[in-house]
Amino acid sequence: TAGKLTLMSILGLKKKQPKTFKVKVITMDAEMEFSCEVKWKGKDLFDLVCRTVGLRETWFFGLRYTVKDTYAWLKPEKRVLDQEVPKDSPITFSFLAKFFPEKVEEELVQEITQHLFFLQVKKQILDEEIFCSPEASVLLASYAVQAKYGDYDPNFHKPGFLAQDELLPQRVSYQMTAEMWEEKITAWYAEHRGIARDEAEMDYLKIAQDLEMYGISYFSITQNKRDTDLLLGVDAQGLHIYSPNSKLNPNKSFPWSDIRNISYSEKEFTIKPLDKKKDVFKFYSSQLRVNKLILQLCIGNHDLFMRRRKVDSIEVQQMKAQAKEEKARKKVERQILAREKQMREEAERAKEEMERRLFQLQDEARLANEALLRSEETADLLAEKAQIAEEEAKLLAHKAADSEQERQRLEVTAMKTKEEKRMMEQKMREAEQLAVKLVEQSERRLKEADHLKQDLTEAKDAERRAKQKLLEITKTTYPVRPSSYPGVLLLRQMGFRAGCDAASMRLDFKDSDMKRLSMEIERERLEYMEKSKHLQDQLKELKTEIESLKLEEQQQQQASLYSLRGDVRQYAQPHYAQPHKTAARSPSLRTVFRLIRMRV
């Protein structure tokens, strides 16, 4: 019995367990899987997803699924499995924004709501579901980069850091190279410094909401049964009719405030304006399902349009208050974070500066140690040089003493040289006087020689006349006194001997003796003139030698003085140069005077 009860209880439990099915929900940044009960309605699954995401502004969103060649939104009031959902397991739904706000800054309260709208609008722009100009695409891309990477840091965000990010539509990216687009985006990105992620996403949405195709759902319609193709656009402001080739500028618009009623009958759709005078606008769709979808979007957008014109509910007011407090708190936190970041950056800069200073000090210490070693080596070298200089100073002092003695000796020598010079000049004057006397004597001798020649000639004439007269007297035998003849007297004065016999009074004059006497006189005259000329030449040589001796004496005195000054300068400023060699001493003046005496 106990076993039967246990089996029955187990079977009862199995019967009580509800049937479930798997659901996969894809959001813009995550994928989630749920196990749903079979009896769940669309609202149950939608609320579960909103609670999981943390979303409270649920009226903008819905769960979309694919039906054949179109899409549909999960209806909240019907069971999930009773709708035309795919029969796959798990059943895939996309959690997307179904309705778009007119002004994102005023209507989007929660940060998660802003983030989901940002991701969806960004994807629509990149997929070219929303047309965007190249300039606006670059600006929007810069805000997307700011939301993802934070503030621009040139040390971290090197060229090429955006290579893996999809930021621009394909239609725009082909116009320039990736490097050129990155440069443009980075230039805008650098100007967004200090903007938080939620602020950057809000700025992105504020720019995107001004685009012509933002928040519009397009459907293919025909205005009549003849298949005149048109496009119907449904957005937060009303209904718009477009040409098939232009989704930017509508041909006709029906604001929600001007629409009185919207209805459909199978494939026919009717728009009744609030002004009854205006014509009713009718159009046709290809499928009944499309009409249902259009009607569903029209009802939802119209409800939100009317809701915006009313006072916010308590729930919305609380959400806005909480969002305001949250923004204020986050702003304070961001300020604190920015201040801490600034302090950290300053601390890092200070650390880097201290490290740089430390490295600099280490380098300076190393250089100082090297300089100290060099200084020690230099000190040792200077000590050696000082010792050498001291020895050289002693040597120079000794040389200075020798130089002083040499200077005194030179002074004494100079005094002696002056005395000898004076004596030499005196002897030179005496020699000149002697030369003058010799010249005068030579001239006097020349005159005497001329007189002698004249006397000799007269004597020859007198001798000839005497001979003539003697011959005449001899012939007449008259006695004559020898002393009365002028020729005999002249011969006696010249020192020649003549024979005279007092008894016979005969005079014997020979022509050979007269010639010999004349030749001797001429020879003496020539020798005297030669000696006089030789003496004059010696006097000239003596003058030349005296002048050269004077010049050598002056040069010797100057060289001695220069050598003395150099020795004194070496003694005053010792150096390592070799001492000057002593000038060669000139010959003594005594030798010169001895030579003069010999020549004189």
From TrEMBL:
GO terms for molecular function: actin binding. One of its GO terms (cellular component) is plasma membrane. It is a peripheral membrane protein. It is found in: Cell membrane. Pfam families: ERM_C, ERM_helical, FERM_C, FERM_M, FERM_N. Residues 21-309 form the FERM domain. InterPro entries: Band_41_domain (IPR019749), ERM (IPR011174), ERM_C_dom (IPR011259), ERM_FERM_C (IPR041789), ERM_helical (IPR046810), Ez/rad/moesin-like (IPR000798), FERM/acyl-CoA-bd_prot_sf (IPR014352), FERM_2 (IPR035963). Residues 320-469, 525-559 form a coiled coil. SUPFAM superfamilies: Moesin tail domain (SSF48678), PH domain-like (SSF50729), Second domain of FERM (SSF47031), Ubiquitin-like (SSF54236). PANTHER family: MERLIN/MOESIN/EZRIN/RADIXIN. This is NF2, moesin-ezrin-radixin like (MERLIN) tumor suppressor b.
